[in-house]
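Example record

Each entry pairs one chain with its bound ligand, pyridoxal-5'-phosphate.
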Amino acid sequence: MTQTYDDAAGLDAADPLRDFRARFLLDADLVAYLDGNSLGRLPIATADRVDAFFRQEWGGRLIRGWEEAWVDLPVGVGDELGATLLGAAAGQTVIADSTSVNLYKLLHTATGVRPDRDEIVIDATNFPTDRYLVESVAAVKGLTVVWLEPDVVDNVTRDVLAAALGERTAVVVLSHVDYRSGTLLDLPALTACVHAAGAVVIWDLCHSAGVVPISLDAHQVDFAVGCTYKYVNAGPGAPAFLYVAERHLATATQPIAGWWSAADLFAMADTYEPSPTIRRMLSGTPSVPGVVAVQEGVRLIAEAGVEAIRTKSEALTSYALALLDAAGLEVVTPRDAVRRGSHVTVRHPDARQVTTRLVEHGVVPDFREPDLIRLGLSPLTTSYTEVAAGIAVLAACAGS
Ligand SMILES: Cc1ncc(COP(=O)(O)O)c(C=O)c1O
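C-alpha cells for the complex follow.
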C-alpha cells in the first residue's frame, strides 16, 4: 500500500526512537529541518556538557586540565567512536583535525604502504575535498591519478572498480555514501576487490558514520576518515576521526608529524620519535570542547543503537521516496533501501530557486550543483511528520 502524508502521525507513534527528538534543541520556527546530513541538530546534553566544560574544567582547572584529563581525550573518545560507530577495536581511531586534513595525512600514509606502485584510484563523483587532495598528494609524490567515471546513481560498483585496478594501483579512495545521490557503496565487496589487486583503501565515512552500521575491522579496511558534524551531531567544525588498522600502525608515517604525534608529548625531546600508538597520527593541540561534543554525540548514538538508527533511516527514506513519487518529483537516489544512506536527492531544473523558496517557507534542505535538492533524514531527530510537512512544501514550491 502506498504511503501518504496522512500516515506520518501513525508512523511517529510507532517509532521506537521517537523520544530521542526531544533530547535535541528544536527550533519552533522551522517546519522541517532536512539538513542533518550537513549539520546535525544540537543535543541538549552537549550544550550542558560543553557549558560545564567551559565553566568548570577550563575555567576551574586551567592548565592542570591537560594532564588531568584532556591529553587522553583524542584517543579515549576515538576508541568510543570506533567501538560504537565503526566496528573498530581500541587503539586504531583518533579524534583530530578536519576530515580534509586527516585525509591528507592518510594519503601520505597509504601511499607509503606500496612504494613500488604509482597510481591512486578515485571516482570523479567523489566529494571535492577528496578529489582535490588526491590530486595534490599525487602531484607532490609523482603519482598518477586514475579516475573512475561511474553513473551517479549506481556509483562505484565492483565491476567499475575492478576495471581500473592493476599492478600499478597503490591506493583507492572511496566515499561510503555518495554526497549527491545518497548511494551506499558495498564497502565489504569493494575493500576485498582492492585487496585482491594488492592495494590499500581509504574510506571516507562522512555520510555514513552514525547512521549506517560499519565494521571496519571485520572487513579488513586499511584506513578511514569521517566527520562528526553530520549524524554525530557534534557541531559546526567539530573535529573529525581517523582510523588506521592495527596491522599498518607500526609502519604508518604521516606528513604533519607535530609534537602531539611524538612518543613522549611533554619530553620536548631534541629528536623526533613517533608514538608507537595511534597517537602518531595526531599533529597539534586538539580542540578539547570539540572532542567533548563528539563524545556526547557518540554516547547518544550508543544509547539508541546504530542498528535501530539504520532501521529508522531506511523507513524514513522509503517514506520520503513514496511521497516524492506521488508528487511526481524526480529522485536520483537508489530505490532499494539497502543501497542508500540517509538522504534522498531530488533533481529539478530550478533546484536553486526551489531551495530558496523552501527556506523562506521554513523547510531547510541542501542545494547541490547543478540541479539537486538533498533531503537529509537524521533518524534521532527527524520525525515522519517533519518529512511529510517538508515534502508537502517542496511539492508546492517545485510546482508539481
Ligand atoms: C563526503 C565528505 N568528505 C569530506 C568532507 C570535508 O570535510 P571537512 O570540511 O570537515 O574537511 C565532507 C564535508 O561535508 C564530505 O561530505
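The chain has a mean pLDDT of 97.
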